[in-house]
Amino acid sequence: MTRLGESVARASSLLSADLSADATVAELLKETGERRYLDLTDLPAKEQAELIASRTVEVLPGVDRLAERIEERRAAGRGLHIKLGIDPTATDVHLGHAVPLIILSRFQRLGHDVTLIIGDFTAKIGDPSGRTAERPPLTDEDIAANLASYRDQVRPFFDFEKVSFRQNSEWLAPYTFPELLGLLAQVPVSQLLQREDFRNRLASGSGLTMTELLYPVAQGLDSVALECDVELGGADQLLNLQMGRKLMELRGQRPQLVVTMPLIEGTDGTGAKMSKSKGNYVGLSAPADDVFGKIMSVPDRLMEPYLKAWTEWTDEEIAVVLARVADKSLHPMDLKKILAGEVVTALYGLEAAMAARAGFVAQFSKKSFADVGTLPVVDVAEHGAETVAAVLTKVLEFTPSASAARRLAKQNALRLVVEAPEGQQTLTLAESEVIRPLGEVLAERLAGLSGAAYLKAGRKLAQLEGR
């Protein structure tokens, strides 16, 4: 049995035990937390490829090809050469940024070599992926400061001592204009304009600079310079990564494999990507209690993607706990506490995770909304004729649009909560109710219920008065 198999076997009895008990949870977090440092070199090539693929969106040209190349490199006495490019564009790092580093850590522990390319040259262009307008370029001082912050914050998820650092200015800065023209003569413009974000910006009349258009080529030249076996990137980076394969072929090199990772949804349940600008993120430098509390606030449906993104659990283990939630032998809140504990354990250690767990239970699990403090108020007598979507969007400004309000309901993240002396009662609103008048919905759903009523949209809360 492999070392990972032994760990899974030890955890199996814990996953079927009482996962609301502190002692059981502490033992489970210790077992799964230690996997972040587990040597995985004893896994066969096929299992290595499947372990990586289970946490990614795509492996191109295929998982079998990844297994074949692992086996080939093993026969030559070495591991794969893995590449990830980083454009250090901000000082604040959140859990979404940790996802590729967690995958890279697994590659390290599987016995492969990792190179982090610091995009000091490309950061001055600005990666246009997913942007609706030009990204402002960075100075050398900006890049150095952001990189130092990035390393410090992501360190709990990745061993920076076992990685090679390269700056892409090494090969991009000396590139001459005749060389670039010769290369571009072989790259169809249609391939560069396949990007949906480029097409959308052009259709809307937004600016698109030549430097942005050439960004995928610059990133592809990183692959040419290092001749890596595998390049990692977010799902929104797919065309950039494929450009690397194209340029390697043009240079007579063996094309790299491409591994894309999911873009992590934010904590507010609206479907938007985790982002500081949207306020739906969990910062890696946040205190343990804050990290725990933010994860506890997310919709239940995010448990599966979050478990896959941030833990070392296997697919089978995740399936076990989700099945227990489905058959009601495990409360979703208890699973969420375990996930929050996993993240805090990674950042601050097991003792801090259990302390944050205890603090959350003491302060929030039994807390009444009446104790929260000043909340926005919706006067039902005044706004009852407006649709629930209009109240959320125009009155409360909880959602940017009516369609976003409908998405919340579709994701079971839109609720009515009634508080009475005997406790809370929560009612989940259906998507069809979002387009109905608020007064009608309240009259139907809260008939016969007494007590203070609240409207909860993701993490946001408002009090309902005059119903």
List keywords for this structure.
467 residues; 11 strands; single chain; 12% strand; alpha/beta
Fold blueprint:
Layout: H1 3-15, H2 22-34, H3 45-53, E1 58-60, H4 63-75, E2 81-86, H5 95-109, E3 113-118, H6 140-154, E4 164-167, H7 169-172, H8 177-184, H9 189-192, H10 196-203, H11 210-213, H12 215-226, E5 230-234, H13 238-250, E6 257-261, H14 288-296, H15 303-310, H16 315-326, H17 332-348, H18 350-365, E7 377-379, H19 380-383, H20 388-395, H21 402-410, E8 414-420, E9 423-428, H22 438-445, E10 452-457, E11 460-465
Parallel strand pairs: 2-3, 2-5, 3-4, 5-6, 7-11
Antiparallel strand pairs: 1-6, 8-9, 8-10, 10-11
Mind explaining what this structure looks like?
With 467 residues, this protein is an alpha/beta fold. The chain has helices at residues 3-15, 22-34, 45-53, 63-75, 95-109, 140-154, 169-172, 177-184, 189-192, 196-203, 210-213, 215-226, 238-250, 288-296, 303-310, 315-326, 332-348, 350-365, 380-383, 388-395, 402-410, 438-445, and strands at residues 58-60, 81-86, 113-118, 164-167, 230-234, 257-261, 377-379, 414-420, 423-428, 452-457, 460-465. The chain starts with a helix and ends with a strand. Mean pLDDT is 87; it is low at 130-134.
Give the tally of β-strands: 11
Main sheet characteristics: 6 strands, mixed
Q: Quickly count the helices.
A: 22
Distance between the termini: 62 Å
Instruction: Let me know the average pLDDT.
Output: 87
Q: What class would the helix/strand composition place it in?
A: alpha/beta
Rg, rounded, reads 25 Å
Unreliable stretches covering 5 or more consecutive residues: 130-134
Shape: globular
Q: Determine the strand fraction and express it as a percent band.
A: 5-15%
| Major sheet: arrangement of strands | 1-6-5-2-3-4
- Give the helix level as a range of percent: 40-55%
